[in-house]
Design brief:
- The structure holds 2 protein chains of 2 kinds.
- Chain A is built from 18 helices and 13 strands.
- Chain A is of the alpha+beta class.
- Chain A is globular and about 60 Å long.
- Chain A starts with 7 loop residues before the first helix and ends with a strand.
- The relative contact order of chain A is 0.15.
- Chain B is built from 16 helices and 14 strands.
- In chain B, helix 1 packs across helix 7, helix 3 packs parallel to helix 8 and helix 9 crosses helix 15.
- The longest helix of chain B is centred in the first third of the chain and has 20 residues.
- Chain B is globular, with a radius of gyration of 24 Å.
- The N and C termini of chain B lie far apart (64 Å).
- Classes of the chains: A alpha+beta, B alpha+beta.
- At the A-B interface, helix 1, helix 3, strand 7, helix 5 and helix 6 of A face strand 1, helix 2, strand 7, helix 3 and helix 4 of B.
- Strand 9 of chain A pairs antiparallel with strand 14 of chain B.
């Protein structure tokens, strides 16, 4: 048998003392340098000398919200095909050059933005060829016809594969219904009809229109000086034409219908996937902080959130239950999600609705608010503890035009939020009686 | 270039990791590994128990993972849920994960709060309360996890089926989360026995990476974990997998629209002795599937267009021999059989002719670079060391791995391809889609009672 550890009481005291005395960690936030190239590219740079590597994220206002009518998938295929050809180089040569230097090239797109990234060692014999090639694929891709056909077929197959996933089906159904009439209804990965309608010329035209200086942000972090960073930015994106910034997106609140709706889709899965939500908040929303912190209490803090406590911890109804606001240029969704075996779906739905309604009516308790603030502020250093995470902040700050002081302001803005502000913001912005509910599952009944 | 905090100067071209690591072992056998990373005022603490599904006897599969869930259910000093609440209030992130050979728990915190993690972690190493009611509730959560991650995921079901084909005897044949039937039969007493048997300091490794002073961490660990007595325990003896003598084939049907193919060959894990074969297989992995310039992507996806995707999984950081695993999806209109033939042709090619110098150079450059990229993540650095230690290896292998890969020759790659990628060593599973069932369609609306 074990002996009881004699230190437990003393340790508990230590714990209490630690809780009282550690308030906000003192941490130097990264110093952001910002400048604009003559062609309009906005550059955000942080010098990080500790690792011999450099990370570049380039994003354009060219997400799937910019897909033309009937051409859903254009944004995805354009960014995805950048590394398939430039000048005399084909996909083989491009991949061999990046990977031969140990560099990592990536591309991605979401509803608002499309982008490419590069990670390389700073050894100039490795970095220089990687940067030159990166510039060429971003500025002057050739979109070879054979690559276009092949990647479109792969994308179509990917869509078919996703139809086996009830979670994926639920997500698509949610956006397409909630944002009916707005470009956010379209899935970033494209639709079957949209992909089939595309031609290679669509890609060329989309690139020419959207991959331009006034539509671009470069986030750069790594083991280089400001001077070197300026040279890198010019070298990589100086060749972009200035072009024109993309026009504003249609206003979500003018388009999205209010009111309760349900969408039930049968699927042979043994679990039901539930999504409940409505249009939420924009990235530069005046209610950003109260909504963010309130949601943290409701369903944004993992196992300690209210939804987790009620749905998972007390009732074992789901492995994963969460809520979030997805802040986009225009209001992205507020969304609650869970999965439960088919026979429990009514119970799970009832619990979620009760928790949501209760939270909107009463807001967080003082204890919940204090705990949420402690988590968000006390854990702040974890948000900026790697080059990768800082690069993500730089990208978001640049793309959405957030203040350069965004990272420094974060803790004071969170500290300033009151329970009344949360209650007020949720009452104005979150209407449990006017939500869209998407249900996928049921075992093919 | 220099690391400003340490003034360590890297020799030109030498990219191997050189952050300081120190280790110590407490009297009770708990091994502690500390790596300094002063880039940000954060710390990650991970405790790794040398027990996992590969220790589980038939009929008790999934028990390591269920215990992992139960570890958050409280002790006498900290009631159910308090662990997570305290870490959250301290700005921490915490969770746990069960791998095939291990069970691990972690906290990520601002650096001054490390004592809190140690106090809570030491408490539950000894004093876990395993309550019958909480157990049956948590078991239901685990069942939902299994439904989510496996039962409703055709690819995951195919993988589970494949592992049970490739391994007939060794516990690697079982899924980490356990077979449903075993989960249904599990009792709280089973879990208690599992906890009592394995959760002792002499069966654990504590890994800390971050902005810390190793001596302070050792002292702190001694204070919190030192009082827990060591205890001898009966090590598990996993039955050895008999040598495979002929190709095995299986099929699984699932509601899906797209078929897929799994092919695997038994292959060695890393070991403390002569393990050049594992490094040669890593290079082979990179030659075939190491990005857009690797052969699978270049030949199968782009040139022949027979595959929509083809990936290799070879993870030799393991306690027992593993698989060199190929997972592939045929292009539209192509069959799994055609894709299998094309993959076999690629395998024959690496067996018959040595890989090109530029292919070898490319893989080595990628390994050297990713060794640096990895150091951008405090968490992942800890994870690599913890895993090496827990499978019976040595964290120092991490720093040597770049050199070991650099030493691999084209002839060695050809040798391991011939030795392991053989007909009699192969298992194949095909996912056979049943498209009719997977088409979503509008169903009856929810009844009024559901939608108050």
């Amino acid at each position: 048998m074990f002996a009881r550890p004699s230190t437990r009481v003393a340790l508990s005291l230590l714990l209490a003392v630690t809780l009282l005395h550690v308030s906000v960690a003192v941490m130097a936030t990264p110093k952001i340098e910002h400048w604009t190239l003559t062609n309009g590219v906005r550059v955000y740079f942080v010098e990080a000398r500790n690792l011999p590597m450099v990370t570049l994220n380039v994003v354009f206002d060219a997400g799937s919200a910019r897909d033309p009518q009937g051409r859903n998938g254009l944004s995805m295929l354009t960014s995805h095909l950048l590394n398939n050809g430039t000048g005399e180089l084909d996909a083989d040569a491009i991949a061999a050059t990046f990977e031969g230097q140990g560099a990592e090239f990536g591309s991605s797109n979401d509803r608002d933005m499309a982008g490419v990234s590069l990670r390389s060692l700073t050894d100039r014999t490795l970095l220089d060829p990687a940067l030159d090639l990166f510039a060429r694929v971003v500025v002057a891709p050739s979109f070879p016809a054979a690559s276009f056909e092949r990647e479109r077929r792969r994308a179509l197959l990917g869509l078919k594969q996703a139809q086996a996933s009830p979670g994926d089906i639920a997500n698509k159904a949610f956006f397409s219904q909630l944002y009916k009439g707005h470009p956010y209804a379209l899935p970033p990965e494209g639709s079957e009809a949209g992909l089939k309608a595309l031609t290679r010329n669509d890609l060329t035209a989309f690139h020419a229109r959207h991959y331009v200086g006034r539509n671009a942000v470069l986030a750069l972090i790594g083991d280089v000086t400001l001077r070197e960073a300026k040279a890198i930015a010019e070298r990589v994106l100086g060749g972009l034409p200035a072009g024109a910034a993309a026009p504003p997106l249609p206003r979500v609140m003018d388009v999205v219908p209010r009111g309760r709706a349900e969408r039930v889709l049968a699927h042979p899965s043994i679990q039901t996937h539930l999504l409940i939500g409505a249009a939420g908040m924009a990235r530069n929303d005046p209610d950003f902080y109260p909504l963010y912190l309130g949601n943290f209490v409701l369903g944004g803090s993992g196992l300690v959130s209210r939804l987790s406590q009620e749905v998972r911890e007390k009732r074992s109804l789901s492995y994963s239950v969460y809520s979030y606001f997805m802040p986009l240029r225009e209001p992205g969704p507020f969304l609650i999600g869970l999965q439960t075996k088919n026979s429990q779906r009514a119970e799970a739905l009832a619990v979620v609705r009760r928790v949501l309604t209760g939270f909107v009516e009463k807001g967080p308790t003082p204890e919940e608010l204090a705990a949420a603030k402690k988590n968000v502020t006390g854990g702040f250093p974890l948000r900026i503890d790697s080059n990768r995470k800082i690069a993500e902040y730089l990208t978001v700050i640049g793309f959405y035009g957030l203040p350069l002081t965004y990272i420094d302001d974060f803790i004071p803005r969170i500290e300033a939020v009151t329970a009344e502000q949360i209650r007020d913001a949720f009452r104005r912005r979150v209407h449990p009686e006017q939500m869209l509910t998407v249900v996928v599952g049921g075992g093919g009944q | 270039m220099s690391f400003s905090r340490f003034s360590l100067v890297l020799a030109a071209g030498l990219l191997a990791a050189c952050s300081p690591v120190q280790e110590a072992t407490l009297e009770n056998g708990l091994k502690i590994i500390v790596k300094e990373d002063h880039r940000a005022p954060v710390v990650v603490s991970q405790i790794w128990y040398k027990v996992g599904p590969s220790d589980e006897p038939d009929g008790r599969t999934g028990i390591s993972h269920v215990l992992e869930h139960m570890m958050f259910k409280g002790t006498a000093a900290h009631k159910n849920g308090e662990f997570s609440r305290i870490i959250a209030e301290n700005g921490g992130r915490e969770n746990a994960f069960t791998g095939i050979d291990y069970t691990a728990y972690f906290q990520q915190l601002e650096k001054s709060r490390l004592p809190i993690a140690f106090e809570l972690e030491a408490d539950r190493m000894r004093n876990l309360v395993l309550d019958e009611k909480e157990f049956s509730k948590e078991l239901r959560v685990v069942m939902e996890e299994r439904r989510l991650r496996t039962d409703d995921q055709p690819e995951a079901r195919a993988y589970e089926h494949f592992m049970a084909t490739a391994f007939t005897t060794h516990p690697y044949k079982n899924p980490i989360i356990g077979w449903t039937r075993d989960l249904e039969m599990m009792s709280v007493e089973d879990v208690r026995n599992w906890y009592q048997r394995w959760y002792v300091p002499n069966n654990a490794t504590l890994v800390v990476v971050g902005d810390v002073d190793p001596r302070a961490v050792f002292a702190l660990a001694r204070r919190h974990f030192g009082p827990i007595p060591a205890r001898t325990f009966e090590p598990a003896r996993a039955p050895a997998e008999p040598v495979q003598t002929e190709t095995r084939r299986s099929r699984i049907s699932a509601p899906a629209q797209v078929p897929s193919l799994l092919m695997g060959f038994h292959a060695p894990a890393l070991s403390r002795t002569d393990d050049w074969e594992a490094y040669a297989l890593m290079v082979l992995n990179g030659v075939l599937d190491g990005g857009g310039s690797a052969r699978f992507e270049r030949e199968l996806v782009r040139r022949q267009q027979i595959a929509a995707g083809a990936d290799i999984g070879y993870s030799p950081t393991a306690r027992y021999p593993v698989l060199f695993l190929i997972q592939a999806t045929p292009s539209r209109g192509r069959t799994p059989a055609e894709l299998e033939a094309a993959i076999r042709a690629q395998i024959r090619r690496v067996q018959e002719e040595p890989i090109a110098p530029d292919e070898l150079a490319r893989v080595k450059a990628q390994v050297a670079a990713s060794n640096v990229f990895t150091r951008d993540s405090v968490f992942y650095q800890a994870m690599q060391m913890g895993m090496l230690e827990t499978v019976g290896l040595d964290w120092q292998m991490l720093d040597r791995s770049v050199e070991r890969v650099r030493a691999v020759t084209a002839a060695q790659v050809q040798t391991v391809a011939k030795k392991y990628l053989t007909e009699s060593n192969l298992s194949v599973t095909v996912l056979d889609p049943q498209p009719g069932k997977a088409k979503p369609r509008a169903a009856a609306p929810l009844g009024g009672a559901h939608v108050r």
